[in-house]
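FIELD: query
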Amino acid sequence: MRRVLMATAALALMWGMAGALAAPSGAELYRVYCSQCHGLQGNGKGINVHDMSVQPRDHTDAKYMAGRSDDELRTAIVEGGQALSKSVLMPPWGKVLSESEVDALVRHLRELCGCRYGQP
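FIELD: result
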């Protein structure tokens, strides 16, 4: 009986660890890396906007966001705004985020705008 309990405890611990290692969602990544400037709702009204010379993009603006391909969004996230002739205040996250995390952020941006490329 004791071995069964120990085995059960070990499995529970492993499952717990696996859950802790699960990749964060796009919404979680956005909250951590983007919301300070772009706001929790993605509307460009984060806590840092008052100190910024260039206002952050409103990711809920379907018309604007539909004009940006997923590749452009990835480039902005990975290489920063300057890579697309946008604000130098948008930092590059390519050395911080994995490819799958960048993809999760792109999917979350599409959820925020409720749009797809070419279809507001």
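FIELD: remark
The helical segments are 2-20, 26-33, 35-38, 62-66, 70-79, 99-113.
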